[in-house]
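Before relying on records like the one below, remember that each one covers exactly one chain. Contacts with other chains, cofactors or solvent are not represented anywhere in the record.
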Amino acid sequence: MNDAKNTSSEGSAAGPFSPRPLTAAMANEVERLLSGRTRDIRLTGDLRGRFEERSWRQTSKVIRSWMTWVAFVDVLTLALNALLLPSDVALSMVAPACLLPPAAIATALIWRKPRAAAVLRASLLGGMCLILLSVTLVGVFAGGEFYERHLTIMLFVATSAITIFSVPLAWTIVIACYALSLYFILQWYNPLVEAGSVVAGTLFFSCGIIATVVARRTMNILAQKTFLLDCRDQRRNAELADANARLERLARTDPLTGIANRRWMMETLEGLWLSGRDTGVAAAMLMCDIDHFKALNDKLGHGEGDRCLVKVAGIIQSCVRADRDLVSRHGGEEFLIVLPDVDEEEAVAVATRIRESVEAAALPNPSSGVGPSVTLSVGVALKSVRDTDISLANLQHEADMALYRAKEAGRNQVSVFRRQHQAAPSAPIAARRQG
């Protein structure tokens, strides 16, 4: 409904309000307007468009309701006049009265859906001109006491429209000026009223209509201020949500390696265990530990140790399924990996691929007792769908035990934990270190 948008399309002229994020420029404009005086608030550009989008539904509903009731009251009044007034007077009112319902209904139909601002403005102002003219001409055609009475009714109709139509101030002023001009001109030609009375009456009604226009302007400004406050709250809520999301990411992410931390991993696994408690879940848990990591820190320094952790974390992530497997830093140089829905062969293959990839990266560790580069020991624990009595803590303990056995056996290898009821494989599973 902004005059600057006369050529805008239906979709951009108005529509249901959607809380799209504010741009930085719009946010700065909101703060500038709210920091000044309320009476100086003027919405322009994108802010004006958003305000119209939000207020469209309510404004159009009010205008349609007003137009419908005015048409209904006009028809009802015409029927009552036919019953209560002399036939010649009633018949003189029919022609001008018939001008009102089509104008009101046409305006209501145009305001049923968003349109270009020029169309909305022309329909509303044109419809109001015809409605006020119809009310006035009913009195003029009837003559006598009805002449001035209907001029007063016309001003009342105009005042009610000015009061409740939440439209741009320029539109309101046009309606007010038209109503006062119509009153003055027709009263001037009223043979029953003297010129002085015409001027006095026009001044009297002008004061009332001007006060109504000023009140309408204040209501428009307050509506715009409410919109600006909502925009500011929306932006602050978005900033708060973003800050909370960042805090949540920090709470579940290891700050050094960028992968999940132990807390997030355990919370996630507990949820998975609870959800699969009745049906059972199949999973493999891999506990990985960098061999002789303390010696690396002592020899090359903690900076090199941190770089080693970051690179090993990246290698592990590249060896697992990004959309299903879970990887976390479990301790200083330990990493925990959970592989859902895999059997022993698949789990060992992943563990072996991780161990071999770390060794192939040839990260320096001159103080290692295994070789000149960084190596990894991996413990594997498995849970099938039949192992419904295996808890999360039990599976983690078994992975720890398997890792301990891999360390005891010489490091740089994969070891699988076996329960008593599990059969041994036909071929060795442990991937022994090269050489």
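The CA atoms of residues 1 and 167 lie 8 Å apart.
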